[in-house]
Amino acid sequence: MANVIENAATYDASFVPASVWRLDGVDPRTRLIAAVSFSVLVTAVDSLPTLVAALAVVVVGAGWTGALGQQRWKRLIPVNLLVLMLLGLLPLSGGATPVLSVGPIVVAREGLVQALWIGLKANAIVLGVLVLLARLEMASIGYALGRLGVPEKLTHLLLFTVRYLEVLQREYTRLWSAMKMRGFRPRVDGHTYRSFGYLVGMLLVRSVDRADRIVAAMKCRGFCGRFHPLDHAALTVRDAWFSALVLVVLAGLAALEWA
Amino acid sequence: MKDGLVVLDKVSYGYSPERPVLARCSFQLDANERVGLVGTNGSGKTTVLKLIVGLLKPTSGHVRIFGQPCCNERDFREVRRRVGFLFQDSDDQLFCPTVAEDVAFGPLNMGKSREEVRRIVSRTLSLLGLGGFETRITYKLSGGEKRMVALAAVLAMLPEVLLLDEPTAGLDDAAAQHVVDVLAELPQAMVLATHDPRLLGGLVNRSLRLTAGRFTPESSRDWAANPAVRSARQQTA
Fold this sequence. Notes:
Chain A is mostly helical and 259 residues long. Chain A contains nine helices and two strands. Helices cover 68% and strands 3% of the residues of chain A. A two-stranded antiparallel sheet of chain A has the order 1-2. Chain A is flat. A six-stranded mixed β-sheet of chain B has the order 6-7-8-3-9-10, sandwiched between helices.
């Protein structure tokens, strides 16, 4: 659980001057649409050359935009752990052409190919999304989703989560260090489970309290259930250029696949 | 009888029936007054502030704000536009991603136009020495900065009365002193729940001590004798 909170809280903690990011000035909405279209296309792809081409495009994109700098490449680790697990398990689940058999264990070619295929696709998609979205603040993504017609409740949920994850993380760290200061060391026994239960319970209770206080503070500033966003950035020429580029790439990949 | 800006008339309140926090407690804030509320933790200082803006409703007694009796949510909605409330924990108050959006939240709720709101935001931020903070991310601010931005968010609604819940709590000396200096420049009538001798000694006109659910006047000389206050005053003199 600690890791989950940590990962989410450090999601956009890194800060690079805006000029480094080559996609700067491209509206988050354009990027989101590009990311979704690219992901959908890659999932539909069935031939190796197209998939390799797609991977090449995102790798070049990553190099060009610096999307993997600042430790951001680490975000590829969870995906590839999953892929490794599939690589370990899928070949064992049976198939027509055995590559290797040790006693009752048979490694099948079909499973191996399937796992590699999933690995390539997953990496292409995650890398593509990273290239397009990694340097955006979560808040801009939230607003962009809202303006693309995602229901208000969901975007508010996202925005509030982003805002208060760090506060919760601080609360968790405080409680956890207070436990350690009093000599708590996790073991495999009832005391440990109960203490962890209290910790999680206390976090929940405090979150509910905090939510009440936030609503109170919002009411004090005249909140009546509707948000009025301050900024409405318009799409610019850059978005047009960027969309054209993305369209060319996607059309190229589609042609390679189906033409 | 002439009404004050804020009047609590024999107000009672308790979070549980066995343990009342306020017992037929009366309070009045007049124009141009700065009143300090002191009392032990849990004595009900924050409760008093919450009753004034209707976040809590008294179990008995009456609340009158700006001469109007306030009973239900609709009455208090009007009150909250004219009475600003600074929360003890600024993280409760700052929930928008950027500083500008947070300061704009109140004025936008009041139905002001975007142009006007933008003017209000930049004017309020520069008033508090926060020029250039517009695009800063609220959760990456320091504690002192958060408190000042929260104050800016309250002031952006142009309130006539300020309620401040421990405005200097949790801040280092420099940040706390900055808050005190800023508050001293503001024209609004104020109610401050605080323990800070800097506020009680220099800023307020009178202090009330809350014990056993009632207010008793507190001599300001006790605070003036405090060495922390004396040195703060010498510095400002």
